[in-house]
Amino acid sequence: MNCPLKKRWERRKDARPQELLAAALDLFVEKGFAATRLDDVAARAGVSKGTLYLYFTNKEELFKAVVRENVVPVLGEAEGILDAYEGSTVDLFKELILGWWERIGATKLSGITKLMMAESSNFPEVAQFYHDEVIKRADAMIARLLKRGIERGEFRPLDIEHATHVVCSPMIMLMMWKHSFSTCRPQETSPEAYLNAFVDLFLHGMLAKPTR
């Protein structure tokens, strides 16, 4: 007699790494890095803990894989858009900012930012990894965007290093708000309206010949 439960377990115990990564992303966002246990990740993915260890040696390596599988490719796509874009830097700026929200901010991936803000001081090796593979790369892309606008005469001369931080800060704030204070605010903030206001304010401060 066939046992459906047994067959289901046999089918699931060879789950692909992507299933483990999806489960890990859910738990990292829900619980944070410290509170996420490998036992819970395996259970969420429907596999044994031993199966998880076939792919990932520890929680740090699992977290790195989650970031490399989900966040790093989005950065690569944005860099590709920047490399190939032929239109104005103003339009490119809008496309990258709004595209970031669509691919990262509006998804559960935005919870990774809160995790890093809250727990990086307790896990310096994880923080260093995230800085090297995400933050440093994103900052370099924004700096290239601003430099493009200046070189084309579209933006006035700027302190690119500090302007890069100014560009990133509102986006980080929006993600942090989504995963924290939004539950305390009576009226929900519209991410699209927020980002459009930010783009409008920032671009008018950068334009070589501000529109009237």
CATH architectural name of the largest domain: Orthogonal Bundle
Strand content: under 5%
CATH fold description of the largest domain: Tetracycline Repressor, domain 2
Overall geometry? elongated
Just give the CATH class of the largest domain: Mainly Alpha
What's the mean pLDDT score? 87
Distance between the termini: 79 Å
| Poorly predicted runs | 4-15
Helix content: over 70%
Q: Which structural class matches the secondary elements?
A: mainly alpha
**Could you name the CATH homologous superfamily of the largest domain?**
Tetracycline Repressor, domain 2
What's the total count of β strands? 0
Could you give the order of the helices and strands? HHHHHHHHHHH
Main sheet summary: none
Round the Cα radius of gyration to an integer and report it: 21 Å
The count of helical stretches stands at: 11
Number of domains: 2
Q: Can you tell me about this structure?
A:
By secondary structure, the protein is mostly helical. The protein has helices spanning 4-12, 17-31, 38-45, 49-55, 59-70, 72-84, 89-105, 110-119, 124-151, 160-178, 191-206. The protein contains eleven helices and no strands. The protein starts with a helix and ends in a 6-residue tail after the last helix.
